[in-house]
Amino acid sequence: MSDTSVNDDEVEQTPRELVAAHASALFEGPPNPEMLAFARRMRDDFAKFLMEYQFAVDEVLTKVSILRQEFMHLHSYNPIEHVTSRIKKPASILEKVVRRGCDPSLQTVREQITDIAGIRITCSFIADTYRVLEAITAQNDVRVLAVKDYIENPKPNGYKSLHAIIEIPVFLSTGPVPVPVELQIRTIAMDFWASLEHKIYYKYDRAVPSHLAGELADAAAIAEQLDRRMEELHTEIHGDRLLDGGGAAPDDLLDDTLLRRLWELSRGPDTEAG
Known about the structure:
Layout: H1 8-11, H2 15-26, H3 33-75, E1 80-87, H4 90-100, H5 106-112, E2 117-123, H6 126-137, E3 143-149, E4 162-172, E5 175-187, H7 188-203, H8 210-238, H9 240-243, H10 256-266, H11 269-272
Parallel strand pairs: 2-5
Antiparallel strand pairs: 1-2, 3-4, 4-5
Helix pairs in contact: 7-8
């Protein structure tokens, strides 16, 4: 914070506390008609703003659901283990606006804060994370804004994940609105490590003791070894067929009678009677 008008106590406050304190000060005293009109307008605009992000998440989740079904029915293999999603709370968005010092207009927020909508996809193996990212970003209505590969280039603390900011159109009654969505794609081991790391950093307010930071880095290395070994075992048992997307359709999709009928139809009317 560079505002010299705040006192020493304020400087020590978190962005959340600052936002709450400033809001409380603004609404003290008798009602201000101009402020009340502003509050009503912002509530309506912000509700519509977040609704667009929820629709964008719904669109991407539909794409992921289709991919899961395609993999299962056509490849007899589903690389996606779990999918979760979230929309940032208004307070969290405002905290980020305060931290970055950006203009609080909704248009500026959309341009500069790209993780308001988030989807996390947990995959079985490292190769699957890249396959899923490619399958999503190759779609015609998906625009890739940024990709960060923290699997190939982990963060110093050991964090690993594929990150992508994509933009997807949300079709409203007034026309399409491009909305950014953050994708995080990681393996089960990476997700377990990241969940533990988040809890530790939250407990220590990001000031994690050095010995715990070292333990986390060691755990990240162990998680990587587990990922590599499990992928090797998978390939040893199943070969490259599943990891390369090969596979057969379900056996019960077409029985022998239907297959014979299709064969007869494909040969033309002259051969049906025979």
